[in-house]
Design a protein that fits this description.
The structure holds 2 protein chains of 2 kinds. By secondary structure, chain A is of the alpha/beta class. Chain A has helices at about 50-55, 85-90, 105-115, 120-135, 150-160, 180-195, 205-210, and strands at about 5-15, 25-35, 40-45, 65-70, 70-75, 90-95, 165-170, 200-205, 215-220, 225. By secondary structure, chain B is of the alpha+beta class. The chains are: A alpha/beta, B alpha+beta.
């Protein structure tokens, strides 16, 4: 862990709906995440943690405030313009895995690497490396339908990490898995984070996750409070 | 690399919902087959009409042959008396024409008009003096056309009859014979103006009654021998020389050669060589009408193929909202995603062409062997057997049309894909 700020949110607010039905999902959030940080977003359902994760992942736009990812101010950029940023700087792990069903495990990991313009040999070496790290070398030619939920999530983690992103965002990564498999997935995420030194942000309800990650960002009615004991980088 | 991967994904996506892909391919392939069969029918119709124009004609002037030779002045000036600008048809001219190559034979013709009378009733006629033997050869040319395997066989018996009744036999149109109340062997009188401006009369015998290709000509139609026509007009000239080539495709290459042989390098050419298509008014107007009908049918079919494929593409987009959102989230731009759908459309088109070619040949074979008779076209007097040509030269264009329409059906997904919200799509079921 070092003090290089990877993601910074300044007075970020997000609203849903219009007029009387307008709801404030995030209320003037200020948050900084440093390289190598592992942070868990905690809050009740509808508190705004998924919204915060989406904004950090540049797949949604804030209504107010600024978001800076790895030195790039994304505030004035459209979602379409943010596509290269997502490709190069951000890795996603989704709750329901979201693998492409017509592609094998190998090809699912390969897809974003191809669009990054890497050489075939470099891609192959990189995929073999991450598949080994998630323990799925023997499953690389299997389609998602031929794998268990835990295996699919491991492929999703491999896909997120293969491109060596600055920040990995995991939205309830263990929610669709049994506790043993979920624990295994968490092990992989934490180990890989330690090795790669990428920033990891997990949103979770899972008590196992909360037990194992010390840096916790609480979200309540769109407002953020942070346990700062482990990282001086988490708040402005 | 990226394109190859997209092609790979597109192909796999096609087989994801194989039943729907199969139905789309069948619709597009049927569209291809329908267009190809229409093209084959069009080819058959145009070929038949073209050769019928050359051999039989759709006017009182008979078959156009492939080329017709006129005196230049006959086309540019008004004649003061009949055959003022006629051609002195002699052996030297004949050999000059035949030395041009690709020429099968020539037919001299005299065009004249006047009155025909049975003694009680006189009616006007449009007459033609012909060489029955050479006109028979033109009929034989039609009968020898090998791509018309199921064509109508024309009979030269009326020319044989005209030759037998020479020198003063006449062939009358059905309607004219009816109007004059005559039959074969009846005696009639032909009246016309001679080249000196005097009126001359010749006694003729009805050699036969002919059924014309076009009914309206039948009332004014009269054929006689060149000798009879020349006797009536007191001349030894002919109106034109019809040139029949070994095949119709040689018309345009032979025309300038023949013109050069006849006129040399003279600044003021004596003869004019006119190709059959410049003389075939009926053929050209029918072609125009058919082209409009066929183009309209083609447009309808292409629109059906396009809409069917668009429907498939839009359904595929709806079904894959979550996938599209995921691709966007991991950093793949809209353009690449749309390209993937375009490839799917392209492959549907490609498979449709292959299946369509098979369907086209199966249906063409069934139609060609069914012996189905088509009713006579407007104004014509005999039915014809339906035949579908292979129309190979049209197939690349039809393939292109089908592939372009199926590929571009993917473009309509563009709006939908752009609109898909990443956040909403990730939780889409």
């Amino acid at each position: 862990m070092n003090n290089t700020v990877i993601a910074r949110l300044v007075d970020v607010s997000k609203y849903y709906g219009n007029g009387a039905a307008r709801v404030k999902a995030l209320d003037r959030v200020n948050l900084s995440l440093c390289r190598g940080d592992i942070v868990v977003l905690v809050g009740l359902s509808g508190s705004g943690k998924s919204t915060l994760l989406h904004l950090l992942g540049c797949i949604d736009k804030q209504d107010e405030g600024n978001i800076i990812i790895d030195g790039i101010d994304t505030s004035s950029m459209s979602l379409e313009k943010l596509t290269p940023l997502r490709l190069h700087k951000i890795g996603f792990v989704f709750q329901s895995f979201n693998l492409i069903p017509v592609l094998t495990a190998y090809e699912n990991i390969e897809l974003p690497l191809l669009f990054k313009g890497l050489e075939k040999k470099a891609i192959s070496e990189r995929i073999d490396e991450v598949l080994e790290e998630v323990g799925l070398q023997d499953r690389k030619n299997h389609y998602p339908r031929e794998m268990s939920g835990g295996q699919q999530q491991r492929v999703a983690i491999a896909r997120a990490l293969a491109g060596k992103p600055s920040i990995v965002l995991a939205d309830e990564p263990t929610a669709n898995l049994d506790s043993k498999t979920g624990d295994g997935i968490l092990d992989i995420l934490l180990n890989l984070n330690q090795q790669k030194k990428s920033t990891l942000v997990i949103s979770s309800h899972d008590s196992v996750v909360l037990d194992r990650i010390k840096n916790v960002v609480h979200i309540h009615d769109g407002k953020v409070s942070v346990d700062t004991e482990h990282s001086p980088c988490q708040t402005l | 690399m990226t394109i190859i991967k997209l092609i790979n994904i597109a192909l796999r996506n096609l087989f994801r919902n194989s039943r729907r892909t199969l139905i789309t391919v069948l619709v597009s392939a049927s569209g291809f087959a329908a267009l190809a069969i229409i093209a084959g029918y069009m080819d058959f119709t145009f070929f038949g009409l073209r050769e019928m124009t050359i051999c039989e004609g759709f006017t009182a002037s008979g078959g156009t042959g492939h080329l017709q030779i006129f005196k230049q002045d006959a086309l540019q000036k008004e004649e003061r008396y009949p055959l003022e600008y006629g051609i002195e048809a002699n052996d030297k001219l004949q050999s000059t024409i035949e030395s041009a190559g690709n020429i099968s034979f020539t037919i001299p013709r005299v065009e004249f008009n006047g009155l025909i009378s049975n003694g009680e009733k006189s009616i006007s006629f449009l007459g033609m003096g012909v060489d029955p033997v050479k006109e028979s050869k033109l009929i034989q040319y039609w009968n020898s056309l090998d791509n018309m395997s199921v064509k109508v066989i024309l009979s030269d018996s009326s020319y044989v009859q005209l030759k037998k009744t020479a020198p003063n036999g006449v062939l009358l149109g059905e309607e004219m014979a009816k109007a004059l109340n005559v039959k074969s062997g009846s005696g009639l009188m032909l009246m016309s103006t001679t080249v000196d401006g005097a009126v001359n009369v010749v006694d003729v015998t009805v050699a036969g009654i002919v059924r014309n290709t076009i009914k309206s000509i039948s009332r004014y139609y009269l054929l006689t021998t060149i000798k009879t026509a020349q006797n009536l007009m007191q001349t030894d000239k002919v109106s034109k020389i019809v040139v029949v080539l070994n095949k119709t495709e040689n018309t345009d290459p032979v025309r300038p050669l023949l013109s050069k042989r006849l006129n040399g390098s003279s600044a003021k050419p004596l003869f004019s060589v006119i190709p059959w298509h410049d003389l075939a008014e009926y053929y050209n107007s029918v072609m125009d009408a058919y082209r409009i009908i066929f183009s309209f049918s083609g447009i309808i079919i292409v629109v059906i193929v396009f809409l069917s494929c668009t429907n498939t593409m839009l359904m595929a987009t709806m079904e894959r909202v979550k996938e599209i959102g995921t691709l966007k989230a991991i950093g793949i731009s809209n353009i690449w995603i749309i390209l993937m759908f375009l490839f799917e459309g392209f492959f549907i088109g490609l498979i449709s062409v292959v299946v369509g070619i098979a369907l086209k040949y199966i249906f063409s074979w069934i139609i060609n062997n069914s012996g189905f008779m088509m009713p006579p076209p407007p104004g014509m007097s005999f039915p014809y057997r339906l035949n579908i040509f292979s129309a190979v030269e049209f197939l690349p264009w039809i393939s292109l049309l089908v592939i372009v329409s199926t590929t571009f059906s993917g473009l309509l997904t563009f709006v939908k894909i752009r609109k898909i919200s990443i956040v909403n799509s990730l939780t889409h079921v």
